[in-house]
Specification:
The chain is built from three helices and no strands. The protein has about 60 residues and is mainly alpha-helical.
């Protein structure tokens, strides 16, 4: 069960990176450009995840 939940989390994160953060939007031709793009998307995803984790329950409730 733990492995299944981990796989779901990975797939969910990948989907978020592609759709929300623009992982699939790279149209360059160089390895260096692709590497920079993937690095920046990964950093943005880590930042969003940390914001989601550190947010208190009061802040997530609608006003």
């Amino acid at each position: 069960m733990r492995t299944a939940k981990l796989r779901w989390r990975i797939e969910n994160d990948y989907r978020e990176m592609k759709q929300v953060l623009g992982l699939a939007h790279f149209e360059g031709r160089t390895w260096r450009g692709w590497h920079h793009h993937v690095t920046l998307v990964s950093i943005a995803h880590a930042f969003c995840t940390l914001q989601r984790i550190t947010r208190s329950p009061k802040e997530t409730a609608p006003a």
